[in-house]
Amino acid sequence: MTPVGNVMILASAGSGKTYALTNRFVRLLACGVPPERIVALTFTRKAAGEFFDEILNKLAGAASDPERAARLAREIDAPGLGCPGFLGMLRAVTAAMHRLNLGTFDGFFARLVRNFPLELGLAGDFEILDGAAVAIERARVMRRIFAGTGGLTEAQRAFIEAFKRATFGAEEKRMGFHIDRFLDQYQEVFLAGPDPLCWGHAERIWPEGCAWLEGAGNRAGAARSLRAALAGETPTDGQRRRWEDFFAVLEEWTPGGPLPAPVAYILQNAFKVWSDLKTGSAGLTVDRRRQLLGPDACRALVAVVGAIVGAEFRRRLEMTRGIHAVLQAHDAFYHEFVRRAGRLTFADVQRLLLPAAGGPRLGAGGKPREDQGADPRLFIDFRLDACFEHWLLDEFQDTSFGQWSVLQNLIDEAVQDPSGRRSFFYVGDVKQAIFTWREGDPRLFREIFEHYNSGAAGAIREERLDRSFRSGPAIIETVNRVFGAGEVLRRMFPAAVANGWGREWRDHASAHPEIVGQAALLHADDEAGRFARTLDVLREVRPLERGLTCAVLVRTNDAGARLADYLRREGGLAAVAEADLHVCTDNPVGTALLALFKAAAHPGDAFAWEHLRMSALGTAVEAEGLASPDGLTLRLLGGLHTDGFEQTVEFWLRRMEPDFETGDAFSRQRGAQFAAAARMFDATGSRDVDEFIRSMESFTERAAESASVVRVMTVHKAKGLGFDMVILPDLEGSRLDQRRDGLAVEKAADRSVKWVIDLPPKLFHDADEVLSAHVRREEAESCYEQLSLLYVAMTRARRAMYLVVEPPGTSASNNFPRLLTAALGEKALAVPVGRLALPGSFSTGVPGWHLGAGSALRPQRIEAAIKRVETGGVRRRMRLPARRPSDTKTGRVSGAELFSPACRQAADFGAAVHALFASVEWWIPADAAAWMVAQRRAGADEAALSEVLGCLNDPLLAPLFTRPPEQADVWRERPFEGVLDGMWITGVFDRVVVERDDAGENSKRITVVDFKSDRVEGPDEILRATERHAGQLGLYRRAAALLAGVSLARVDCQIVFTACHRAAPLPPCA
Amino acid sequence: MPLRLQLLPWDRPLLPQAVELLAQDWSGEGPLDLSALLVVVSTRQSGRRLREGLAARAAERSQAVFPPVVVMPEGLVARCGPETGAASRLESLLAWARVLQEIDPGEFQEVFPADPPSRTFAWAVRLAGRFAALKTALGEAGLRLADVAPRAGDGFEEAPRWRQIAGLERRYTEKLAASGRADAQDLAMASVDAPRPPAGIRRIVVLSVPDPMPAAIRVLEAHARTLPVEVVVHGPPGGEELFDAWGRPGEEAWAARELDLAGFEQHVHLCADPSAQAERAVDCARAYGDSDGMLAVGVADSDVLPFLEDGLARGGFATFVPEGRPFRQEALFALLEALAAVARERSFAAAASLARCPDVLVFLADAAGPAASPARMLAGLDELHRIHMPATLRSAGPHLAGLAGRFPGLPEAVARLAGIETALAEGAFPENVTGVLAAIFGGRRLDLARPGDARLAETAEAWRDLLRQIAAAGPLAAGLATNDWWELVLPLLGEERRFGEKPPGAMELQGWLELPWEDAPHLVVAGLNDGRVPDAVVGDPFLPESLREKLGLKTNAARFARDACLLQALAACRAQGGRLDLLFGKTSAAGDPLRPSRLLLRCPDTELPERVAFLFRPAGATRATLAWHRAWPLRPREKAPPRQISVTAFRDYLECPFRFYLSRVLGMRAVDAAKTELDALDFGDLCHGALEAMGREPSLRDCTDAGTLRGFLLAELDRIVGARFGRELALPLVVQIESARQRLARAAEVQARERAEGWVIERAEWRFPDVPARMLGGLAVRGKIDRIDRHEGTGAWRVLDYKTSDAAATPRDAHCRRARRNRAGENVPEAACFDIDGAGHVWIDLQLPLYLWALGQEDAAGRPGEGVTCGYFNLPKAVGETGVSVWTGYSAGLHAAAMRCAAAIAEAIGAGRFWPPAERMDHDDFAALFHHGTADSVAAESVRLWEGRP
Lengths: 1070, 950
Ligand code: SF4
Hints:
The structure holds 2 protein chains of 2 kinds.
Chain A: E1 6-11, H1 17-30, E2 38-42, H2 45-64, H3 66-75, H4 83-95, E3 101-104, H5 105-115, E4 127-128, H6 131-146, H7 154-166, H8 175-192, H9 202-205, H10 211-214, H11 219-231, H12 237-252, H13 261-272, H14 274-279, E5 282-286, E6 289-293, H15 295-339, E7 343-344, H16 346-353, E8 361-363, E9 377-379, H17 380-383, E10 390-393, H18 401-415, E11 423-428, H19 443-455, E12 460-465, E13 467-468, H20 473-483, H21 486-492, H22 495-504, E14 509-510, E15 518-523, H23 527-541, E16 550-554, H24 557-571, E17 575-577, E18 580-581, H25 588-601, H26 606-614, H27 616-623, H28 629-656, H29 665-683, H30 689-698, E19 701-702, E20 710-714, H31 715-718, E21 723-728, E22 744-747, E23 753-757, H32 762-765, H33 769-794, E24 797-805, H34 816-824, E25 829-833, E26 836-845, E27 882-883, E28 892-894, H35 895-898, H36 901-918, H37 928-937, H38 942-953, H39 958-961, E29 968-980, E30 983-996, E31 1003-1012, H40 1018-1044, E32 1051-1057, E33 1062-1065
Parallel strand pairs in A: 1-11, 1-12, 2-3, 2-10, 4-7, 8-9, 10-11, 13-14, 15-24, 16-20, 16-21, 17-20, 21-24, 27-30, 31-32
Antiparallel strand pairs in A: 5-6, 15-26, 18-19, 22-23, 25-26, 29-30, 30-31, 32-33
Helix pairs in contact in A: 1-2, 2-3, 2-4, 5-16, 6-15, 6-30, 7-15, 8-15, 11-15, 12-13, 20-34, 21-22, 22-33, 25-26, 25-28, 25-30, 26-27, 27-28, 28-29, 36-38
Chain B: E1 3-9, H1 14-22, E2 32-33, E3 37-40, H2 44-60, E4 65-66, E5 69-71, H3 73-78, H4 89-102, H5 121-139, H6 145-152, H7 159-178, H8 184-190, E6 203-207, H9 214-224, E7 229-235, H10 251-256, H11 264-267, E8 268-271, H12 274-288, E9 295-299, H13 305-314, E10 319-320, E11 325-326, H14 331-345, H15 348-355, H16 358-366, H17 374-388, H18 393-404, H19 410-426, H20 431-441, E12 445-447, H21 451-473, H22 482-495, E13 497-498, E14 507-511, E15 522-526, H23 545-551, H24 556-572, E16 579-585, H25 608-615, E17 644-646, H26 649-655, H27 657-665, H28 680-696, H29 706-725, H30 731-756, E18 759-767, E19 774-776, E20 779-782, E21 784-791, E22 797-803, H31 811-815, E23 816-818, E24 833-836, E25 839-843, H32 847-856, E26 869-874, E27 883-886, H33 892-910, H34 940-943
Parallel strand pairs in B: 1-7, 2-4, 3-5, 3-6, 6-7, 8-16, 9-14, 9-15, 10-14, 15-16, 17-20, 22-26
Antiparallel strand pairs in B: 11-13, 18-21, 19-20, 21-22, 23-25, 24-25, 26-27
Helix pairs in contact in B: 1-2, 4-5, 4-7, 6-7, 12-13, 14-15, 14-19, 14-22, 16-17, 16-19, 17-18, 18-19, 19-20, 26-27, 28-29, 28-30, 29-30
The complex binds iron/sulfur cluster.
């Protein structure tokens, strides 16, 4: 077998990426690699689970079927291998299941951190926070930042300053809202580049200097000069008005704020003739006419524009620094209270592992000590009982630079291992890089390849997979026409994008030319039309009835929800929007439950109360007698503090459910989902109603996947999936090359943050080379990603695909519809789809493709039923209800006693008293002194000692402790078990005296003594206490009779109140 | 004495055989006296089942039992220690924490290669827990931390680290010794090889304990020198060689052994997730109904437990969890946490959370007398927060008197809260907490017969136990701050478990290790996933598997052997006439993929591929996706329409008549509990207040000096802020008030200019007089005009309204908009539609027209002439845009249209017409009420209530 080597696979959509990956795994096994030495990482937990299942099923197939064995052997280049060989591997993999390293990047990193807490500066174990938990933590942190306890602290003052700078010129009255927004948008940027020097520092952005900033001086002065210079000119009335407006609003304008239209107008036109203005003579368009400006006016206008732009830039820089200061201040609090308390997000975990200067790096193993000074390493082999030799990385185009940085050292060791015993394998498709907004970094793909190969030619082998095992020829043809249309792409998109795409592009081929299908471009007028067209196609094809899987792919969850709703409502189709559903608030049951909690925790909330009253839950509340605020508040808060939210929710659900219509399984399901969400909240330990409500409001659940419905989902979610038929009715939208809003973040080649600026509006940034270059780069990246999105969308279908667009007409936007019509056809046609003829402009394949498709639904496996074991003839034992006689003291305790340390002392004292009595078999007054000495030596409590001694010496109690003339036994502190009245009784006798007849055989008389050290005085109290203990003693009496084999009548029962040395007999039983 | 291994055949359940074995010498005459017997069992529940079995056995002969002494292996070891001098858990943690805080991390670089960020007590205590756990783990094998490096042998990579850990341990031991204590485990360990003979015991039986800890075996070995020790295993007939002398399943024998699970595919069930597992188990329970003793349910994965409990509860079954529940889930724990938060933060928010603990709530409300209402008290706290936003309780003080009228008892309750806060912050721990708790619960009498009270008493007992440990901790605890105490004590209480008693007839949900003692004919085990059964340690920061092996700690191989043996026993004893069903999940509740137990793959090689295909198939969909369905339509109350209406209400009606009804008639207003800053209304009030004062101030009437005006406005603002919010402002308020200052400062300039241009403020804050009422469509209209100006030169009048919205508004845009193309879909009242130059428009507000109308009814003396203009005095966020914005082009025609609309609305309101509602709102405050259509959300028969009187 040839050595496995390092391999990069560029795998186009549907070309069997997972197949290649699992084959690689099997191949490594075939080379004798122990399975636990292979690390295979992917992004989602679902993918990781499926990956493992697939390996096992592949091996199981090859182990039981010679033909499959032969095929697999061929594929993995291990010709000698047959069923027995694969069976051996199957055994090996299953036996090592608990030690395998197949999973997600996140999970793998969390495991590493767990094993090096102290090395990474953590105090101990940590928990992973999900989105909702982060929101709660953030709110708590905010509360801490905001909370004042008399005057502002230094830190708070600084925070206010920072905030004011961040929102400069547009003072903000909603502080919490804005900080939230900053955190949502910029926290990750901050954490990636916390260095304040990166944020809003001109030297970083314009190392060569920025001319605009130099001109930022005196705006008003420049304006005056301009006015003076223009006074000599003789413009038209319209032009004069334009200039007057310009000067008037310029005065009011504050940098950072919106630029008033009259100013923007002049600026725009000035930029158009900027070079002329600089030479001192220019024809400026004002009010649709050219106004000739002389040298003075030109100079003055250049100065004014310079002053405006300069002021804007300065302000933006300052705001950027302010934003940084806000983020930094917040992070300091957050770090102190959340991360340091062991609550981390996956991103935090990954950051901990990043090799920072002086920080630790991961190392696979070897000699830990020597080089530690220079380069601290975490050697993972020992702690993880693992030795990682082979790396398999999936979906590499979505890998972030951070993830790669964490693994880089380990993979370096593998790639550069001279023995070739270790290897690196990565697979992905840069054409499907649609997660750059989640830090996916498709450039890595090539960079890594070139990096290793520049060190040693051929270190990594490149392979390409362009044959689609998923799609039939109609789909593939259409895909090739759109994405191979170099000329169209060049015409529509920036050269960098078109060329970049062209470099990666290879025409696809279908591995299944026999598949009959259709691909078509259909037209519609507006959203309603696109939805209707979608329904037309679905009604014609009727995919579900034919056993075809079908997806409708959209771009946003909102569109998905609307469309699914439409299909169900108008089309009566089983359509499901596979979005994250707000299951706690998208229905009346959930919102009424939330109103219930609000009404209880905030009884003054009239909204919640009325909501409750007008809902069916209100009726249930009334039926429980809780219609008054006091009733509800006490009951609900009491209940949830004792039993948690989930049980409270369950209680009310059970009250409500009878009111649901019989067929209303939906509401029942939502109720169960609400309860499940409440259970998760309970796990946080919080009993805070407001946190609960917030958490329920933001709780989402993914709708279940199911083959027997029309699945409506976003393209992002469809990545990695395939369907028999796909409809794409949501391809409208603006230009493809739009950068995402927000801060401009420039990164260096090593992805470190170079600079950050709160980007000024387009008019301004266009005027600056550095900023406009940055924006162009971002636009190109965005454009590439949009193309990737379309590529992913168009490669999901196996047999048929229907693209539904609004014909682009004259609109100038370079959007999807424009690209599709340009590449596929613009001429209006009647496109046949089955028996329909729909307006469109392109079709390929067989319009009646579906007619032949049978109703060959894959047979569903019937799950084995759990059968009942028939009761007859089976030996079974009834379980006895248990009773501890000591529980029968159903006493009352005062709240004051409950927490008093004295109370505990009473219990200790009681225990001491019992122990002392237990040490006495028979009391011989003469031995008292010796007994006392012995007890004192054993550390007996003085008070207890004197109390017990008092009892022992009390003549009234003497008979209980004095040896009787007959033969007698004493049971002291003796446990017993028995069954009485069908109940299992467990207890401990304090003291039982068993007198026997002369022969020592049969018991004559029994005395059960129970010591009570309660502070009981006087006959009344003794009587009451005796009554209270009667239940317990009654059982003791019966147990004693049973154990000693005498009739009840011969059992005497005495309660000894040790405080007052009194014995009270228990009245004989009835 | 010789050790004896005895095998109970696993074709019958363990429990009856074990009972028989222990009772074998009993004649049936007299009690079954086993008091000279020590029985070692593996879990608490096993001991319980055994004792129950013995009691039942004796009862067959109408006898009772003197039970044997039943211990678990840990107990056996713990008994070796002396009775006094052992450190409590609290003391151990304290000692560790103190050591960790005192050391110079530089000296322990092998343990702390990275400098810990800041060595707070919280950090130390968390780490202390870690070291304590490590010590416990090593204690299983009778080892101390210091033993690791020497035992691990040569070439042990982490030896330097462990030597330093040993150094920490030494300091820890010294720290304890300094206060007369020693580590409990160390003490026990000292005599495991020579334990005190157990008093009165004549025989020891180790009863089916598959993995006794090595230290326990050492104790048993020592006892075996003087007492007979029997080891009993449950295994295949004649399979003694599968176990070692101590009854541990042999690792090699069990690793290779094929497990016999007959009818595999009928008895092993793949379920999508925990809830699917629970569902299957519940279905099974339903099939048996209440035929007791037939079915038992085991839970190998604690993830599934809550689902199972819920499912069974919903099916009407009572359940009992033998492994108990942590006190963390108790109400008292939540109360203690709230107290800790108050002590830590001293903020109003923390105090308000504390007030919502039910016990505290009752205590606080009680302050105002026995008839006081807790709910009103809470509402009062919310109102206090809404209006005054106090940062602390102290700063709430001055506002209480003003609220006392509406919320009787509020001042007293807040005083109590403040008392708690002061006591906690200023007293010494734990006396301060004890005092507070005594105060809170002082007035209560608990009835232990009530489950809630009994639970409280139990938790309180655990708390008192901790107090005792604190009291005993002496010098170790010296100087610990209250907040540090909380950090230490709360987790200790939280992790403690409450066992409770099994309610009669309850179904026990037993853990995996408890199942061998279960003898029900049908057993369903959920959660049979790898990592649970067998459990496995993969990677550990201190004790990875390779090191465990070297140290003789429990290994994964040993766990595998134990669980293989247990599983086989569960199946074998039900092979005849019983049934074993095993459920495993495809994913966890959190969505992580799970794998079936490796034990399920212990089959002949020939069957393996088929098994793999069976076990690793995809799970079916969790649940059907159901079409959205409305559980119920809403039935809002009917309430008579109002007799009067405020000017600002017209806007609401125009937006949506039905929402108008809900908010303005039914008074639906929400409490914003999360409010941390001023809302738009508060903010506007602040600015209005200052501006109105300016308008009223005669000395400023002719003032054209911006500086003077600014000075006045800002002073006025300060006064208003001081009166409403006090001196201690929460941070967002500081920023917002700053913003108000900026806006007012700019407004001063604008005002100076306006005055210079001739505009004089004639009236400020002019309320529509009630008499004569401004009547419209049968309703009295009320309003308040911010200011009415008169031009001293021209005599012209103008009406102005102050606006503090973020962006400057023009009056016209704020009052009407273009009608949408498709008017039908708008759902706006016909009267709201009008045309301007042939273009359809819709009123969205009528404020300024109504002001002019109200003013137009003024009597002759003050009556403004025809040319009254109106507009806004804008104070927007961009202060550059501050200024007067007059409604240019406001014509008589427009006015007439506006008043037609106003009259129609007033008439509609008076007639109780609030239907149909608007369907699409930009921002809907009522989103919680309406799902899938506003009108559709309301009960059809209720609708006529709002269609108006004819
Ligand atoms: S006397 Fe005993 S039972 Fe009663 S409150 Fe005190 S400790 Fe608890």
